[in-house]
Design goal:
Number of domains: 1
Low-confidence stretches: 1-11
Bound molecules: S-adenosylmethionine
Radius of gyration: 18 Å
Distance between the termini: 52 Å
CATH topology: Rossmann fold
Largest sheet: 7 strands, mixed
Mean pLDDT: 95
Number of strands: 7
Order of helices and strands: HHHEHEHEEHEHHEHHHE
Strand order of the largest sheet: 3-2-1-4-5-7-6
Helix content: 40-55%
CATH architecture: 3-Layer(aba) Sandwich
CATH superfamily: Vaccinia Virus protein VP39
């Protein structure tokens, strides 16, 4: 299958956005993938080995690229106070947010537009003994549904590139953070030239999030490329494409088509100049 700007993109991707601010195709794709994960040992094995080299506790496994080294750096830079509320936006099945909550003693609110992801996150929290201090709710970057100043700290892993309106998303993150609190973001920058006319990634491509965050009122304290990201991203997606038939059998058509489409778009277009870790502070008392 070819992937050309404005051309034949696999997986029926489209740019239709829901009222709360999420691409319909992205939400539906993640719903299908999260529902299928428990029945696909192949996906889990491939992802764990290639995307993060087994370097994250299986109890908090995720479908991004986060390693424990990156997670520790994020925790250090976030500087959460004891028992603060941590909000993880685009939490998926909750692994990274629950891992940070356990390390820091924070309580956790996970927000995601995927009902299947939230259901898995709730189950995981209960199974990890964190059910009493974690809750998971439907929402998006643009509309979290949380009152202003709810978050002592904010995190989002491997998702901000999907926000259809990144200025609105940054404004919403600023609104729900307490003055003096920090946002930690790990995500991909998107190259506008490589994604022109491409659904989802081409809708609002941002090649550098620092000016966007400053424009929303944040002070950017750290902005760094995460080491070794490209090797892991391309190895994981190549392995997904190689296992497409098995994944279709185990996960079903829709979920497999979604992960294979993302793999093909990433490998063929190379839309991501960098994967970055950014930490930004909302001005206010420490
Ligand atoms: C690659 S997954 C990462 C999930 C989780 N952070 C992790 O590391 O496992 C991307 C997540 O972003 C969520 N997402 C996509 N578009 C979103 C939006 N506009 N607002 C909030 N979350 C979104 C998806 O539902 C999905 O759970």
């Amino acid at each position: 299958m070819s992937v050309t700007p404005g051309g034949d993109v696999p997986g029926n991707l489209g740019d239709e956005v829901t009222g709360p601010g999420v691409f319909v195709a992205v939400r539906d794709g993640y719903d299908a993938v999260y529902a299928a994960l428990p029945r696909s040992g192949t996906f889990s094995r491939i992802w764990r080995a290639s995307a993060y080299g087994g370097d994250f506790p299986a109890e908090f496994a995720h479908i991004g690229f986060l390693t424990t080294t990156e997670g520790r750096r994020l925790v250090d830079l976030l500087g959460l106070r004891d028992r603060e509320v941590l909000v993880d936006v685009a939490c998926g099945t909750g692994g990274p947010g629950l891992w940070v909550a356990r390390r820091t003693g924070a309580s956790l609110i996970g927000i995601d537009p995927s009902a299947a992801g939230l259901a898995a996150a709730r189950q995981r929290a209960a199974g990890s003994g964190l059910g009493q201090r974690a809750r998971f709710e439907l929402g998006t970057f643009e509309r979290t549904g949380l009152p202003g100043g709810t978050a002592g700290g904010l995190m989002s892993i491997e998702a901000f590139q999907y926000a259809p309106d990144k200025r609105a998303a940054a404004a919403e993150l600023f609104r729900i953070l307490r003055p003096g609190g920090r946002l930690g973001l790990i995500c991909f920058e998107v190259d506008p030239a490589r994604t022109a006319g491409v659904p989802v990634l081409g809708a609002d491509p941002v090649p550098d999030y620092a000016p966007l965050l400053e424009g929303a009122g944040f002070t950017v304290e750290a902005y760094e490329e995460t080491p070794g990201w490209a090797e892991r991203v391309y190895a994981a997606f190549a392995a997904i494409i190689g296992a497409a038939d098995t994944l279709t059998r185990e996960m079903g058509e829709q979920a497999a088509a979604s992960v294979v489409a993302e793999a093909m778009v990433t490998i063929q277009l190379k839309p991501y100049p960098r994967r970055i870790l950014a930490v930004a502070r909302k001005p206010g008392p420490p």
